[in-house]
Amino acid sequence: MKSVLVLGQGFVGKYLVDLLEACGIDYASTTTSGRDGTIKWCIADDVHNSTLPAAESIVVTFPLQGEVEARRLISGYLHNHRKAHGDTYNPFWVYLGSTRPFKETPSTCHTRPDLVAGGPRVEAEEYIVNTCGGCVLNLAGLWGGDRVPEKWARFYGDKDKLRNRLKDRSLHLIHGADVARAIDTIVSNRDKASQFAGRWLVSDEMVYDALQIFIGAEHIQGYLGELLEEAEVREMLNADKLDDIEMGSSAVTKRIDASHFWSQLQLKPKYPYTVGQPDAYSKPLM
């Protein structure tokens, strides 16, 4: 039996398997193509999960589309492996979600998600927490490597999108390597799994100013100059011109409080983000 099964060796999954290898933890991981020595697997094509090995902990890195899909994945997996390992076989499930459904300021692990905003993903999360006793990590904006927040300026390709973003400039981030470190801590303490069961909000505990990050893009500066011609925008920014805009963490409101999570893990994030600075992460030594 594997110690960890990673379903989906994507962005977070790659950081995680690098860390598991460095720590000497026996694992298996999947991709839809079977690349890089992974198991070729797709949830839609393997109803009974017959190609997946048994593991003590299972990390699901991709979104499950509702309670039905979550139930089908988990019940099919258990049905398949309890034949060989007995009815008491019960792996610990870790599922990665998003902080998008959390609307309170600030939101904590005690905040209920907005079910409408969360949609099917929250349905799956509720099933994993309430029925399976699993762990859901609702992640803030993921970054690391080529996934650089400055590049997200491209999502604001017109003035209306930028105007709406100016109403709430706060941005919460978490490096993929810090997510991997958190998951490694959880699965490495399988005997204490109940301490990590439930829903946790995960960020690096900082609050960033999206405008400060995106202002380096030429099109953002152009749109902002035009928007400052509007009285409503000038009042919103408390500035009449670009150089007068206050930017930085002091200019935004913290929306995500992840302190409960890091305290429970007795861990601290290692990779905060700094505008314009290179990513400090390097692959763990093997």
Which class do the helix and strand fractions yield? alpha/beta
Determine the CATH superfamily of the domain at 2-143 and 173-206 and 254-265. NAD(P)-binding Rossmann-like Domain
Helicity range of the residues? 25-40%
Q: N-to-C terminal Cα separation, in Å? A: 22 Å
Count of runs of 4 or more consecutive helical residues: 11
Overall average pLDDT: 94
Q: From the alpha-carbon coordinates, what is the Rg to the nearest angstrom?
A: 21 Å
CATH class designation of the domain at 2-143 and 173-206 and 254-265: Alpha Beta
Strand sequence of the main sheet, in spatial order?
A: 3-2-1-4-5-6-10
> Unreliable stretches, pLDDT < 50, 5 or more residues?
none
Task: Describe the structure in your own words.
The chain has helices at residues 11-22, 67-85, 115-118, 120-130, 159-166, 176-187, 193-196, 210-214, 218-227, 231-237, 259-265, and strands at 2-7, 27-31, 39-40, 55-60, 92-98, 135-139, 141-143, 170-171, 173-175, 198-202, 208-209. Strand 4, helix 2 and strand 5 form a beta-alpha-beta unit. With 286 residues, the chain is α/β, with parallel strands linked by helices. The chain starts with a strand and ends in a 21-residue tail after the last helix. Helix 1 crosses helix 6 (176-187) and helix 2 packs parallel to helix 4 (120-130). The protein is 35% helix and 16% strand. The strands form three sheets. Strands 3-2-1-4-5-6-10 form a seven-stranded parallel β-sheet, with helices on both faces. The chain has a two-stranded parallel ribbon with strand order 7-9. Strands 8-11 form a two-stranded antiparallel ribbon. It has a domain at 2-143 and 173-206 and 254-265: NAD(P)-binding Rossmann-like Domain (Rossmann fold). The model has no long low-confidence stretch (mean pLDDT 94). The longest helix is centred in the first third of the chain and has 19 residues, at 67-85.
